[in-house]
Amino acid sequence: MLEVQNLSVDYREASALSDISFSLKSSSLVGLIGPNGAGKSTLLMSMLYLIPAQKGQVFYQERPLKLQRQKIAYLPQRSQIDWDYPVTVWNVVMMSRTLHSSWFGKISRQSKEIVREVLERVELYDLRDRPIKQLSGGQQQRVFLARALAQQADILLLDEPMTAVDKKTEALMWNIFNELKQEGKTLLISCHEWGDTLDRYDQLLLLNRHLVASGTPRQVLTPANIQAAYGASVEQINHSDRAGEELLFC
After folding, report:
1. Do β-strands 203-207 and 28-33 pair in parallel, antiparallel, or remain unpaired?
2. What is the topology classification, in CATH, of domain 2-248?
3. Residues 126, 132, 135, 141: is their CA dihedral positive or negative?
4. Where are the alpha helices (DSSP H) in 106-202?
């Protein structure tokens, strides 16, 4: 069980997140949704202690998560990555194995095998020596998914993993997400999908600086909750592509 208790984050003297509390079970796919500026990325980064929280704690199996950093992996937003940095696909993924290196920085045979396996899993092993800047958007996202997988963590926090991906990559990533769920992993995915795609999640967190609702898609996606989070009705979102893009794309 992953538990977030009363998490609050301020940004430039304004409240970015206020008293966020929820729990996530193992073997689950959880979608994090909400309008622009709702604090989705802030929530993920504060759970990782990448930005400070004014109050609140995060627990995993009843122990502070900050004492179990090896249990959690993170796929950041595309905008947080320098795609021009001169590094190969292999080396991006291998960076995730640094905690498993020896005192002298020697990469173990086991780490090399793990990197090979995850690159094969995301169908990029043949491109392992290619610089990441030469890849397509979908391939780049798969590289960073492989990097998260190589950490062999119990919890994966994924910030808009479907951004700029092609249909092949989208299908491949969903297959991997479902496999990870079957393996007992917990996945918290910040997403901009709408419609039937949200039914793929076991649980949704609807956020707008505070937690508007948490539960199954049917429980969360009610007219009252949508109005509270987005300031628009379900009909406005469903019947206006433009409104949907403005309100629902992170």
Report:
1. parallel
2. Rossmann fold (3.40.50)
3. positive
4. 109-121, 137-150, 167-182
Cβ atoms of 58 and 24 within 8 Å: the answer is no
Half-sphere exposure of 207 (CA within 13 A, CB side): 31
Q: In angstroms, rounded to a whole number, what is the distance separating the alpha carbons of residues 113 and 222?
A: 46
Q: Tell whether pTM > 0.70.
A: yes
Q: Looking at the chain, how many residues does it have?
A: 250
- Cβ atoms of residues 22 and 205 within 8 Å: yes
Choose among 43, 39, 34, 37: nearest CA to 232.
34
195-219 core/surface letters (b: 16 or more CB in 10 A; e: else): eeebeebbbbbbbbbbbbbbeebee
Q: How far apart are CA 179 and CA 172, in angstroms?
A: 11
Strand 186-190 vs strand 14-24: parallel, antiparallel, or unpaired? unpaired
DSSP-assigned letter for residue 135: S
In the chain, domain spans: 2-248
Which residue from 159, 3, 27 is spatially nearest to 81, judged by alpha carbons?
159
* pLDDT in single tens digits along all 250 residues of the chain: 899 999 999 987 788 999 999 999 999 999 999 998 899 999 999 999 999 999 999 999 999 998 998 899 999 998 888 888 889 999 999 999 876 554 456 778 999 999 999 999 999 999 999 999 999 999 999 999 999 999 999 999 999 999 889 999 999 999 999 999 999 999 999 988 777 889 999 999 999 999 999 999 999 999 999 999 988 655 555 554 343 333 332 3
